[in-house]
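Lab notes, practical 5.
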Amino acid sequence: MEIENLSEKSLKKTFKRLKKDTKRFSKLIVRDALDYIDFEVDISNNLKYLINKIKNNSYMPVKPYFLNMPKNKGSNRPTVVLDIFDALVYRFCVEQIEDELLSKTRQKNIRGGIKITANKNSSTGDDFYEKWFDDWQKHNENLKESLKRKKYLVATDIASYFENINILILKDSICSDIAGKNNLLNLLFYFLEHTKYRFEYEVNTFNGLLQEDIDASRLLAYYFLRHHDEVMANFCKENNAEYYRFVDDMAVTVDNETKGRKALKTLTESLRRLNLVAGIEKTEILTDEQAKKELFFVENEEISILQNELIEKIENKEDTAETKNKIIFYYKKIKKEGSKRKNWIKILKRFYTLCAYGGFDVFSKEIEKHIIQYPLLFSDTRIFKYVLRQKNNVLNKIIVKFINYLYSEENLYPQLETNLLELFLAVPTSKLRRDTIDKLKKLSSVIFFMKSNYKAMSDYAKALSCLLFYKLNDKEKLNEIANFFLRNKIHDTVLQKYIVLVSLCCNNQTLRTNILDKAKRELNISLQRAINMIENSKKMQKDKIVKNYINKESFIIYKNKKFEINEKFDHIRGKLLKEVLEIYA
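Output from the prediction step:
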């Protein structure tokens, strides 16, 4: 089957964009043991293999890796991680239709649909990427202006939105809007139908759009509500109201409460036709003053002023003590009352970001409460930036608090567990105290070997504990891991690859030989790519892609066109690859 515009060249562009968007694959919630360097060094053959599978109708997506992300109060978001081949197929398909999807959906008041390919600057010809945060700020500005004209705001979102998107309705809508790409659309929906995560062999209801970490689903979810947008636009025209949407967060500004209730009636009935339901918890009718307060308009403006002041001082190498005091004062000023409001976590995120830029210790005494109350705040690299910028004594105290959290009954979210382990891996060993290192060694042992009643919430957590043994130079435990692999059948392919690569750095040559022999017999394509690199170690040591990967030493905290703030970190996967190549060269 010939897929429109599918070629090695177009897929290579998709790979480069995916690599850029995920910061060299480091932002994926389940990272490959080598961040797909073993895929990239032989990218031409890998892409030809994928294209051939698709053209011969033998392509079948791999079952996605499942890892729950935190929301709040114990609830979670079912998030999947795709095999690299499947991620490329999904991204490629969405990239090929994103312009058509956006042309049908995007309006000044309908935001949250961010392009995943670059735009061209009309004046300079340079590529630039749309920014999620910029779009969110414009959405807030639109609401703020609307509330100058209207007296009430109706706010709601959609309960479990991605999980309830019907793939067949989405397919009908896209196929009616896009012409000349039939085979591409067939591939896209074949992929979506076969990657739907089903529990206990349940019947495929075709409900549920993948919640992944490569930004392809977000655009489809943004588009899915376009007919609903038309219904709301007609309502607004008839009732002198204004409608705003950011992905599935919706707001209608009206002149009185009665029209607010009418807006909710129209909105919920329209959603029901798409088999969707408004979220009860976030549904409310607010006065203009209440809305301004709940949406933190004043606070966001003040934080933006503080951020610009801080960035300017850092850029000009000026003292930031005065700005730090302003940030701390303002945080304390709004915290008591602001923390009771629903959107407080968005403000808290911005304060953590400011403190990461400046390297300020503002939250070390509160961080234990924050991780329990706002677990989503600790599920991405924002917390890396904050911790890495702290002085050694503060950094060690925070690490110990996170270790204690992992031992506690509050450790409820698999992705938060692994994100903290990733943080431990990123902190330079030179910054860790001896007692902190001992605590990390013990934690690694109880996670991997399931000691002290600690039960890891995912195999990926065990994989990262292997890497933590390597980081802390625990050769005795590397030998134990190697023997564990030789004695046991490891079914999880991600864990298997981590175990093999870490075991190949043990100090027992016989063990290493046995490990490599067994690894070659495993039916794990990702692992075989790594073995192919190992068997060509001398060549790989000279490879430019490999050299650039190994030599990465700094973590970017902030970057604009003029300067960047960065911090040294332990690129532990790069160190692992370097040592393995040296051993086998």
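Observations recorded by the TA: The chain has a mean pLDDT of 94. The chain is about 60% helix and 10% strand.
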